[in-house]
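WARN  no MSA supplied for this record, continuing single-sequence
INFO  ligand: D-ribose
INFO  echoing inputs
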Amino acid sequence: MLPIVIASDHAGFSLKEQVKKHLEEKGIEYIDLGTNSTESVAYPEYASKLCCAIQEGKANMGILVCGTGIGMSMAANKHKGIRAACVSDTFSAKATRMHNDANVLCFGERVVGAGLAFELVDAFLGTEYEGGRHQVRVDMLNSFDK
Ligand code: RB5
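INFO  complex generated
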């Protein structure tokens, strides 16, 4: 099984570090693509690093953290083959896997606490895509890549 990739900007750095510890406790391998401090950086750069790693086949799934999760999801969804979801509740974290086959989870350090972030990660990584009736819609999403 491939590792997951994780990245943040400065506003998501602290929560990213906490999520990494959570992944370690769960025995889930990850590749940290930065940032590595709270020094100000541009979130699109880190979203792009993570999406490129998925496009290159280094990972199938990713986690992006910024202040809100919104900028990261906007940047990620500009990348071919990426279906990123910005969520702050566990129902949506599961549903976006089941219905949208989301491959990147985004959330905001200024929005969710660490405990909820861990639940979002567990819900997202622990839920399978349902396929079936959803596939035609995911195919439509993917067609916008062209
Ligand atoms: C950084 O201040 C902030 O704009 C960024 O982390 C994110 O929330 C953007 O969507």
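The chain has a mean pLDDT of 98.
INFO  checksum written, moving to next record
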